[in-house]
Amino acid sequence: MERVMRAIIAMLLMLSTYAHASCGSISDSDQRAYCEAKTNGQSCGNIRDNDLRASCSAEMNGQSCGNIQDNNLRNECDAIKH
After folding, report:
1. In CA terms, which of 25, 54, 75, 77 is 20 to 30 Å from 60?
2. Cα-based distances in Å from 57 to 5, 6, 49, 73
3. Which domain holds residue 41?
4. Which domain of life is it from (predicted)?
């Protein structure tokens, strides 16, 4: 049982490191901030693009998708929330 627990913990550590590293490799600062908010729980407030910030806030904080101007992003946001 102890071996199984160690294996699970090792896998979780590897996955958390991978998720963090993958956000760091995103060159677009808004997309990187969005990734970090979704994977690491960071603030959506660091996102400069209004629609992407609103989408992030809707997904992470339960806010409305209705104030997203871009139709595709708003529809995606609505689909994720429902």
Report:
1. 25
2. 35, 35, 12, 13
3. 2-81
4. Bacteria
Name the pTM for this structure: 0.69
| Angle at alpha carbon of residue 35, lines to 15 and 70, rounded to 5° | 145
- What distance in Å separates the CA atoms of residue 82 and residue 24, rounded to the nearest whole number? 29
The phi, psi pair for 8, rounded to 5°, reads -65, -45
Number of domains in the chain: 1
Instruction: Tell the residue number behind the tokens 């409305």, with chain if given.
Output: 64
Report, as an integer, the average pLDDT of 8-36.
76
CA-CA-CA-CA dihedral for 50, 43, 65, 31, to nearest 10: 60
The residue count of the chain comes to 82
Q: What is the pLDDT of residue 19?
A: 46
Retrieve residue 30's tokens. 């808004």
